[in-house]
Amino acid sequence: AQSVTQPDIHITVSEGASLELRCNYSYGATPYLFWYVQSPGQGLQLLLKYFSGDTLVQGIKGFEAEFKRSQSSFNLRKPSVHWSDAAEYFCAVVPDSNYQLIWGAGTKLIIKP
Amino acid sequence: DGGITQSPKYLFRKEGQNVTLSCEQNLNHDAMYWYRQDPGQGLRLIYYSQIVNDFQKGDIAEGYSVSREKKESFPLTVTSAQKNPTAFYLCASSMPGTDTQYFGPGTRLTVL
Q1: pLDDT per residue over B35-84, tens digit each?
Q2: How far apart are CA A49 and CA B74, in angstroms?
Q3: How far apart are CA B47 and CA A65, in angstroms?
Q4: Of A102, A112, B90, B103, which sits most exposed with the smallest number of CB within 10 A?
Q5: Closest to B45 (Cβ–Cβ): which among A43, A45, A100?
Q6: What pLDDT tens digit does each residue of chain A (113 aa) get?
């Protein structure tokens, strides 16, 4: 079955440290790829997306993600996290042209002071 | 300001009652979606609509109903047939032919 995997349910990072959140998908073709962020009790905000072209994508709030076809991955990175980055992060994939998003289960980011 | 509004933010309902969640957008988007979010499960698609007067079932449509009489509005009714309705409900919209969805702030439904 088509799926999106975020292997880390929780990640704890010290403020100022670098961050990498993992996302893997199980599709043969190159899908459309997204990262969203959700603060507690809020809706989701789009951080960045990849459709084609340069495999390193820049997003809002200093985030970037790299598409690696050989690893079927689209990991999210930030060089230095801030306390305000504490939230839940969701990876999502559109595997084909029907425009339906397939969601990962999310990774909750905890920031240590 | 363009955006998506959902109301109410919190909703309580007794077992056996139907309840309707509101979703309105002024982004001029044709497509609208309803998702259910439970802890540790990501988002699951309930219903979606690509155009006015048309909608399709998502992965977990049982116990829910929708209507799309206006482009701006896509209300979701949680019926008494939904066995476990307590959850966070998110509405989203997008332009046709694009894959980027924009989300409302959500409604938290609790069945007492």
Answers
A1: 999 987 789 999 999 999 999 999 999 999 999 999 999 999 999 888 89
A2: 26
A3: 30
A4: A112
A5: A100
A6: 678 999 999 999 999 999 999 999 987 677 889 999 999 888 899 999 998 889 999 999 999 999 999 999 999 999 999 999 999 999 999 877 666 788 999 999 999 98
Q: Helices then strands (H, E): number in chain B?
A: 0, 11
* Residue-level pLDDT at A28: 62
Residue A2 in contact with partner chain B when CB distance is under 8 A: no
Residue among A33, A26, A34 nearest A2 (CA)? A26
Per-residue CA distances from A106 to B5, B15, B56 (Å): 23, 30, 25
Token pair listed for A83: 């306390």
Residues of B in contact with A104 (CB under 8 A): 42
Give the closest-approach CA distance of B100 to chain A in angstroms: 8
Chain A residues close to B60, C-beta within 8 Å: none
User: How far apart, in whole angstroms, are the C-alpha atoms of residue A79 and residue A62?
Assistant: 8
Ranges of beta strands (E only) in B2-106 are 4-7, 10-13, 19-25, 31-37, 43-51, 54-57, 64-66, 76-78, 87-94, 102-103
- Is B100's CB within 8 Å of A106's CB? no
